[in-house]
């Protein structure tokens, strides 16, 4: 609940100041090398409904860096985890590809409001 309150607060601050934001909710983290685990995006904890695996910290870090130059990541909040059957995160434009596949959705903060 406190993390959600903090996110809502930061989103409000960003909107008021015209600053862009990206919030990535990482699944369980691992220390495995990045670029090999199958990666999937989702919203509102829907990835928890399927068997998910631990995602390498390196893949989350790579997604954070890619988000800086990805217009589709601006003003978005989403979950990121490793799911069997998905593809590894592409080292250059992987986040953009995953966001395109996900469509124009973002986490719904009216569900379980803080």
Features:
single chain; 114 residues; alpha/beta; two-stranded parallel sheet; 7 strands
List the helices and strands and how they pair.
Elements: H1 2-16, E1 22-26, E2 29-30, E3 38-42, E4 52-53, E5 55-56, H2 57-68, E6 76-83, E7 87-88, H3 94-102
Parallel strand pairs: 1-6, 2-5
Antiparallel strand pairs: 3-6, 3-7, 4-6
Number of helices: 3
Can you count the beta strands? 7
Cα radius of gyration in angstroms: 14 Å
Low-confidence stretches: none
User: How is the main sheet built?
Assistant: 5 strands, mixed
The rounded distance between the terminal residues' Cα atoms is 6 Å
Helix content range of the residues, please? 25-40%
Order of helices and strands: HEEEEEHEEH
Shape: globular
Helices and strands: which structural class? alpha/beta
**Mean pLDDT level:** 92
Strand content: 15-25%
Task: Give an overview in words.
The protein has 114 residues and is an alpha/beta fold. It has helices spanning 2-16, 57-68, 94-102, and strands at 22-26, 29-30, 38-42, 52-53, 55-56, 76-83, 87-88. Strands 1, 3, 4, 6 and 7 form a 5-stranded mixed beta sheet that branches. A two-stranded parallel ribbon has the order 2-5. The chain is globular, with a radius of gyration of 14 Å. The N and C termini lie close together (6 Å).
Compact summary:
The chain is α/β, with parallel strands linked by helices and 114 residues long. The protein is built from three helices and seven strands.
């Amino acid at each position: 609940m406190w993390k959600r309150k903090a996110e809502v607060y930061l989103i409000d601050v960003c909107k008021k100041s015209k600053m862009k934001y990206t919030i990535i909710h990482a699944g369980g983290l691992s220390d495995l090398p990045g670029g090999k685990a199958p990666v999937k995006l989702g919203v509102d904890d829907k990835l928890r409904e399927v068997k998910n695996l631990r995602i390498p910290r390196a893949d989350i870090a790579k997604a954070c860096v890619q988000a800086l130059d990805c217009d589709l990541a601006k003003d978005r909040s989403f979950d990121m985890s490793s799911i069997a059957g998905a593809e590894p995160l592409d080292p250059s434009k992987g986040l953009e590809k995953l966001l395109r596949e996900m469509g124009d959705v973002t986490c719904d903060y009216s569900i379980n409001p803080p």
